[in-house]
Amino acid sequence: MTIDAHQHFWYYSPVRDRWIDDSMTVIRKDFLPKDLKPILEANGVGDCVAVQADQSEEETKFLLKCAEENPFVKAVVGWVDLCADNVEVQLEYFSKNKLFKGVRHIIQAENETFVLKPDFQNGISKLAQFGLVFDVLVFPNHLENIIKLVQKFPKQQFVLNHIAKPKMSETLDEAWVKNIQILATFKNVSCKISGLVTETENFEWQETMFKPFLDVVVDAFGVDRLLFGSDWPVCLLAAEYQDVLQIVKNYFINFSKADQEKVMGENAINIYNIKR
User: Where are the transmembrane segments (predicted)?
Assistant: First the structure.
């Protein structure tokens, strides 16, 4: 069964969701499990992983409620203030809910040295004892310090989001390629094939644009550490759900059925410890 390892839910709030600017009017509305379920069913996708879009514990509680009320939402990657003095208490609190599988911080909005801060690294050091994944949302310029972070925490499972958001409308950036290759040498790092269509100029794309970038991550991580994610509803800025799914399916069409199943679901089950 296919699992979408990366999507979001929200009740749209103009104040909270200021990141949704005037170029993103198509997603300036509510997106809830009842909206996603028929889309998943129509595309043969069974389950999903809900990922935070707002940095608040209210967001984490909201996503856990969504998961509790909708059995197809198998896991939640929420937000906890990893820099807080009481981070361990908060992680313990949320981990009582077995659907809480990971934490994400929007590092792309921080400076390049944020992940080297002692208080942030203290928070990262507390995740493994609760069996929690850390989802890594960054731009390419953050990768060098992400490598330093990952190197320091070999027992922590990391999942790179959106292949680190290289600019898809441009040729391969040598620094991105090199850093992806280095990052992938750490076996505790996996990578989501997600967010491709929205990293294009003016949200305009052709499927052939993505192949060089996918070649890099497949060569670096291998099929055992790659996960399909739609990034719904953000993907709607540039494509329909079925388009995003088809891009990935078409790329892997000549891979073995076993390898396709890993990327399209099995790896997500293993990495996020999803109960079926």
Answer: none
pLDDT value, residue 66: 99
Answer whether 3's CB lies under 8 Å from 274's CB.
yes
The Cα–Cα gap between 190 and 158 comes to 6
Q: Which of 165, 213, 167, 156 is nearest to 190 (CA)?
A: 156
- DSSP assignments along the chain, one per residue: -EEEEEE--B---TTTTTTS-GGGGGG-S-B-HHHHHHHHHHTTEEEEEEE-SSSSHHHHHHHHHHHHH-TTEEEEEE---TTSTTHHHHHHHHHTSTTEEEEEE-GGGS-TTGGG-HHHHHHHHTTGGGT-EEEE---GGGHHHHHHHHHH-TTS-EEESGGG---TTSPPPHHHHHHHHHHTTSTTEEEEE---GGGSGGG---GGGGHHHHHHHHHHH-GGGEEE---BTGGGGT--HHHHHHHHHHHTTTS-HHHHHIIIIIHHHHHTT---
Q: What are phi and psi of 83, to 5 degrees?
A: -90, -5
Asked whether 97 and 132 are in contact (CB, 8 A), the reply is no
pLDDT score of 15: 85
Phi-psi region of 162 (alpha: psi -120 to 50; beta: other; left: phi over 0): left
* Rounded CA separation 15/56 (Å): 14
All domains in the chain, ordered by first residue: 2-271 (3.20.20.140)
Nearest to 267 by CA among 160, 168, 165, 151: 160
pTM: 0.97
